[in-house]
């Protein structure tokens, strides 16, 4: 064993790696060797004249000790004496401290040895003589002793331990060491008897305040300035013994002009306020108050109307103010009830001269007092009782005074205290706020907005009659201002109703809703005010924030819809606004939808729509596709939110109605209309599609889906069967839905092969068949079927066939285009309504883009335009940039051709991808800068293409801020600045703003 031990020691001395120490530690634990044997084996190395050899030898012993949990006490004592002796040798100090730390952490370590360890460290270890890494070990040693032997220290070594800490931590500058120093100081100050050392411990820490540390770029320790600030803050908060030194010293720092320093001061004070005992805070509260009150009194509070506005502040100076406010809010929590009266009386006596409405510090004073009032009910009642009588007897003489008074009252309205002295002043407050709301000019919007907010906030202490009166006044105000959605009074009133409708829906239902709906026209007239209709319905949607209101509004809007249809109101937009409002209401609150909505709303809206759409030729909505589509969206939305258990019944009813021509519960009455989509193609297919696309794909059709699909294919192949494109699109979408949800790949392949055999590419009669094939292929693409690739290839092969070259890009676009009926149900992830795979688009683009690039390079000149058209069409459907990023370099030459196109839609899809290219890999465009910038400038002058102008300016902006070398941008600087002058007078503000930004960027290039 001695030979093995010698080999391990030799190995460690040569490499200083851990494995030998692990083997030695294992042998010690298994008692194959003793630590004394190890020391003996290391013998000559431990006393070698070469410092490195001595240090390595001690390191071997220390690293071995660190891997052992238990030794007998005799061995520990011997080794402890060995290490204490080694403290005289500065060359081995780091490993000696590591060894002592390992020794003191052993389970059998005798705490009686700590006195000699600590005394020796104090006498023999001089921190200034060592690098940061060695000093770090001294902190770790003290930390381990504190954690393992705290009780013994408290009983026997309190003063010595504190002295040693002060000795090793004084003048420390390394951030890693400071973190552990602050942590130790906090623990010592909060747990040991430090009365005799409080000043030294405080000075030891305060010399680092405020922390101005910035971590070096490649620091291995990941220490941020915030970590040091937080650690230091916790030291000051550790014991109230620091208060006498902390408060006067730290408050001096408030005179700093740096917001960061002031914020650090205030966050420290707030932490101390939380942790110091009440007696200490009572002793120093006046000092704190006198130092901090000016941070409020000298602050401009222009944007603060209620206390909640303070939380919205975000600038660096604002953060300082917020921290002051937090301190004043917490300060009274430390007062007893007797102290509250005494302390507040001192403050009020000083501040009373500021409590006049016209005083320049009036608003700040009221804010300060109201913030303190939020601390607890006793403080609130005392301040309210002292301040509100003064405010309510001070008569405002100007509008500014009225604003100040309304704001001051709002500061004190606190729903957290429903039973408080505020109730005694309720009537007077109502008079002031109602007067400000009703009597001031509409030009003076700020006062009205303040009064609106204050009245809503006050509602918690109003009785039913008073609440009704307030809401009635607000309802009238809402109606009088809703013509201008940007009117601040309208916005404030609308926000008020958002809150009111959630908390008091009954009052809104009885007061506001009838008033709003009474403004909707009931009779047919060529002079229906559509703007009024839109505004009223917009308000109705925005104030509906409860199930009670939602239920009632849906019923009433459907009633208006029916009344208009019966009255033959001819204004089509009116119907659309009504249906869209119902859709928005249901969209905004899907969690409120239930089977009850399906049973009530779907039959009513289905019956009304079908009767008027298909049967009543005199109906204003007869054959109106827009109305039918909007009704379908409402139905789909409701079904998507229903529990799975109801889906099969809804699907069966829809099949009965639309495929089998029989009555079903989908209608509130018998229509006398036999619908059969598979024999006659009425436009109602759009409605059936909404039912079919919404229900779970696990719900089977009650009739054979393959038979239905076959019939639909035969009908749809011939466009002569349809009265409109809307009808034909409905059938194509239905074919895709059925194929995607119910038909196997083998059956679809059979149908596609049969269709392809009938195609004559030289005949226009085959275009209908090609379109049907594209929609069936789309169903395969959505599900990521292996079969999809075969038919993608087929459609791709048509690009260079002259007779179908003009339509083949559009057929390929069908495969990837978004269709609302083919959207996955995102409202309930438990219900899967379609076979749509997550990455189907990525797969499509990864296959198609390389083929388009290759085809473009190799095709005849006549076909190049076809490939560019295809690329521009499919790029319109890229909504996740990650899909396209890997292909940018290869498609860039084609993009440069697309932006030259005269087709605005194609050009804009190219510009969007160009912008993405510049943003993600700008170096790709360097060789093409001249042609790109010339084209972009030309597009900015084309006033017929607003989107093109915006996209071109965005590209120019992105080029200007990109990493393209300035030397390559400078030649274009003057041209861009000069040629965008005309865009500054564009009628659209967004374009003018972009043009100004672009010019500024290129102007600044000269100074770069």
TrEMBL record:
Positions of the MMS19 N-terminal domain: 39-297
InterPro entries: ARM-like, ARM-type_fold, MMS19, MMS19_C, MMS19_N
GO cellular component: cytosolic [4Fe-4S] assembly targeting complex; nucleus
Domain MMS19 C-terminal, first and last residues per copy: 536-959
A Pfam family this chain is assigned to: MMS19_N
Compartment annotation: Nucleus
One biological process term in Gene Ontology: protein maturation
SUPFAM superfamilies: ARM repeat
Task performed by this protein: Key component of the cytosolic iron-sulfur protein assembly (CIA) complex, a multiprotein complex that mediates the incorporation of iron-sulfur cluster into apoproteins specifically involved in DNA metabolism and genomic integrity. In the CIA complex, MMS19 acts as an adapter between early-acting CIA components and a subset of cellular target iron-sulfur proteins.
Family stated for the protein in its record: Belongs to the MET18/MMS19 family.
Protein name: MMS19 nucleotide excision repair protein
Organism per entry: Komagataella phaffii (strain GS115 / ATCC 20864) (Yeast)
């Amino acid at each position: 064993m001695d030979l093995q031990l010698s080999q391990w020691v030799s190995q460690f001395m040569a490499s200083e790696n851990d494995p030998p120490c692990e083997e030695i530690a294992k042998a010690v634990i298994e008692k194959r060797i003793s630590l004394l044997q190890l020391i003996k084996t290391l013998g000559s190395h431990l006393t070698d004249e070469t410092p490195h050899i001595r240090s390595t030898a001690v390191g071997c012993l220390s690293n071995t000790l660190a891997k052992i949990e238990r030794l007998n006490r005799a061995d520990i004592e011997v080794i402890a004496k060995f290490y204490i002796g080694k403290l005289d040798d500065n060359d081995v100090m780091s490993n000696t401290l590591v060894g002592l730390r390992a020794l003191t952490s052993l389970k059998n370590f005798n705490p009686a040895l700590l006195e000699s360890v600590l005394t020796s460290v104090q006498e023999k270890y001089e921190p200034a003589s060592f690098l940061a890494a060695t000093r770090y070990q001294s902190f770790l040693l003290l930390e381990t002793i504190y954690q393992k032997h705290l009780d013994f220290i408290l009983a026997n070594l309190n003063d010595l331990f504190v002295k040693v800490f002060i000795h090793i931590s004084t003048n420390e500058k390394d951030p890693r060491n400071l973190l552990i120093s602050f942590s130790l100081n906090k623990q010592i100050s909060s747990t040991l008897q430090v009365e005799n050392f409080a000043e030294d411990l405080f000075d030891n820490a305060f010399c680092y305040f405020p922390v101005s540390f910035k971590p070096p770029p490649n620091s291995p320790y990941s220490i941020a300035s915030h970590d040091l600030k937080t650690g230091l803050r916790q030291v000051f908060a550790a014991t109230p013994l620091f208060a006498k030194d902390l408060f006067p010293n730290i408050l001096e720092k408030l005179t700093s002009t740096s917001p960061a320093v002031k914020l650090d001061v205030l966050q420290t004070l707030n932490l101390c306020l939380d942790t110091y005992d009440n007696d200490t805070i009572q002793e120093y509260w006046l000092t704190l108050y006198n130092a901090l009150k000016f941070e409020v009194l000298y602050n401009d509070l222009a944007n603060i109307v209620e206390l909640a506005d303070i939380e919205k502040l975000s600038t660096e100076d604002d953060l300082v103010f917020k921290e002051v406010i937090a301190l004043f809010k917490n300060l009274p929590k430390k007062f007893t009830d007797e102290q509250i009266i005494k302390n507040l009386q001192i403050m009020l006596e000083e501040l009373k001269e500021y409590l006049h409405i016209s005083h320049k510090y009036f608003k700040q004073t009221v804010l300060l007092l109201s913030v303190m009032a939020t601390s607890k009910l006793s403080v609130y009642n005392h301040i309210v009782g002292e301040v509100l009588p003064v405010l309510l007897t001070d008569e405002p003489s100007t509008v500014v005074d009225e604003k100040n008074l309304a704001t001051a009252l709002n500061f004190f309205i606190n729903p957290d205290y429903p039973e408080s002295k505020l109730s005694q002043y309720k009537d007077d407050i109502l008079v002031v706020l109602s007067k400000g709301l009703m009597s001031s000019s509409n030009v003076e919007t700020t006062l009205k907005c303040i009064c609106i907010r204050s009245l809503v906030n006050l509602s918690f202490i109003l009785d039913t009659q008073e609440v009704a009166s307030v809401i009635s006044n607000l309802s009238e105000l809402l109606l009088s201002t809703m013509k201008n959605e940007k009117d601040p009074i309208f916005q404030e009133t609308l926000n008020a109703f958002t809150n009111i409708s959630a908390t008091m829906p009954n009052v809104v239902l009885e007061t506001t809703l009838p008033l709003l709906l009474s403004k909707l026209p009931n009779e047919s007239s060529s002079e229906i005010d559509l703007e009024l209709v839109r505004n009223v319905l917009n308000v109705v949607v925005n104030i509906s924030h409860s199930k009670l209101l939602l239920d009632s509004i849906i019923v009433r809007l459907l009633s208006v819809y029916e009344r208009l249809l019966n009255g033959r109101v001819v204004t089509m937009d009116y119907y659309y606004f009504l249906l869209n409002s119902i859709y928005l209401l249901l969209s905004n609150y899907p969690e409120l939808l239930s089977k009850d909505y399906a049973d009530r709303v779907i039959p009513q809206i289905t019956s009304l729509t079908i009767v008027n759409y298909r049967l009543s030729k005199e109906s204003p909505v007869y054959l109106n596709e827009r109305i039918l589509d909007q009704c379908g969206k409402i139905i789909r939305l409701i079904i998507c939110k229903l529990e799975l258990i109801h889906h099969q019944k809804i699907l069966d009813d829809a099949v009965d109605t639309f495929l089998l021509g029989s009555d079903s519960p989908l209608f509130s009455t018998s229509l006398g209309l036999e619908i059969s989509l598979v024999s006659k193609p009425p436009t109602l297919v759009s409605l059936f599609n909404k039912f079919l696309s919404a229900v779970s794909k696990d719900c089977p059709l009650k009739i054979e889906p393959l038979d239905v699909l076959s019939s639909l294919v035969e009908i749809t192949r011939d466009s002569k069967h349809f009265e409109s494109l809307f009808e034909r699109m409905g059938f194509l979408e239905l074919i895709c839905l059925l194929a995607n949800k119910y038909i196997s790949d083998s059956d679809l392949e059979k149908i596609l092969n049969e269709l392809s055999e009938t195609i004559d590419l030289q005949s226009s009669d085959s275009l209908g068949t090609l379109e049907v094939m594209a929609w069936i292929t789309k169903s395969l693409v959505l599900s990521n079927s292996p079969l999809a690739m075969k038919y993608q290839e087929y459609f791709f092969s048509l690009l260079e066939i002259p007779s179908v070259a003009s339509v083949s890009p559009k057929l390929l676009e069908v495969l990837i285009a978004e269709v609302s009926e083919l959207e996955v149900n995102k409202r309930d992830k438990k219900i899967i309504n379609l076979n749509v795979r997550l990455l189907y688009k990525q797969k499509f683009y990864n296959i198609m883009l390389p083929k388009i690039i290759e085809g473009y390079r190799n095709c005849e000149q006549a076909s190049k335009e076809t490939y560019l058209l295809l690329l521009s069409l499919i790029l319109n459907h890229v909504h996740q940039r990650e899909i396209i990023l890997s292909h940018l370099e290869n498609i860039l030459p084609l993009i440069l051709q697309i932006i030259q196109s005269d087709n605005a839609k194609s050009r804009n899809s190219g510009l969007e991808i160009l912008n993405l290219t510049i943003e993600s890999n700008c170096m790709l465009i360097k060789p093409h800068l001249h042609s790109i910038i010339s084209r972009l400038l030309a597009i900015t002058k084309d006033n017929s293409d607003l989107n093109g102008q915006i996209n071109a300016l965005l590209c120019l902006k992105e080029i200007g801020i990109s990493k393209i070398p300035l030397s390559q941008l400078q030649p274009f600087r003057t041209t861009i600045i000069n040629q965008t002058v005309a865009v500054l007078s564009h009628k659209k503000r967004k374009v003018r703003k972009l043009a100004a930004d672009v010019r500024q960027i290129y102007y600044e290039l000269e100074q770069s």
